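Researcher: Sequence of Phosphoserine phosphatase follows. Predict its structure.
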Amino acid sequence: MRLVVQGPAITMAHLSHIHGLIGGHTQFMQLAAHAYYLPVSEGDYLDVKAFCASQQIDCALVEDRQRLSHIGLCVMDMDSTLIAIECIDEIADMMQLKPQVAEITEAAMRGELDFSASLRKRVALLKGLPASALQRVIEERLTFNPGAQTWVNTCKQNGIKTMVVSGGFTFFADYVKDTLGLDYAVSNTLAITDGKLTGEVVGEIVDAQRKADELIHLRDALGLEASQTIAIGDGANDLAMMQVAGIGVAYHAKPVVQQQAMYALNIVGLDGVANLLTI
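Model: Prediction complete. Tokens:
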């Protein structure tokens, strides 16, 4: 196994302290500007994890077989994972409804509400909004999370197919796919009539199970094993796809997701995923 530590706050003093906690003889080796790894034997390393958490450092124990060269597919959530906003909350803000909608969104991401029901409830509040507001969200509010483009580029360089699968909306998912250069995009479609949102979603909602199903379907179509897949997300509706993936990464995620994911990144950007899987 290898212990991977990363974060902009890392100093040589941090590495020395971690090394002392482990008591090994091998020195840390650098992976990137703020990322290092150390070969270790199996164990919990609770003291190391506690120290890293207190120092704003991400750490993970990674199995040696988990490397970029073994991965063939990465499936990612969109809102608050690839991008820094929840699109539906920003759409709602244009109707002065952001607090009400954001409260429902947050509860759904924590796993306290059924996702499909909560989405229909939120979308219903948007009835009558001009469809032009969707483009305004892209132009005025949508930003990518740190490291998103770097991670996608790394996937391309290693022959890894990429897909965004989102409980959000096609208008944004297609933009994210085209801008980052992803291979596939699956998301919900907002119903629009006479240039205005009807307050309804067209077709089957992309919920937790649909996300998992889409990963499995594409994995099988590509002829891959489960161990060759990665799922990255932040909310409770991402847990099902993480569980069917070989590697599940919680990115700046809700506590329930961090507890169940294989790895959690709370400090670094999405490029940190590459550091977990690169030697």
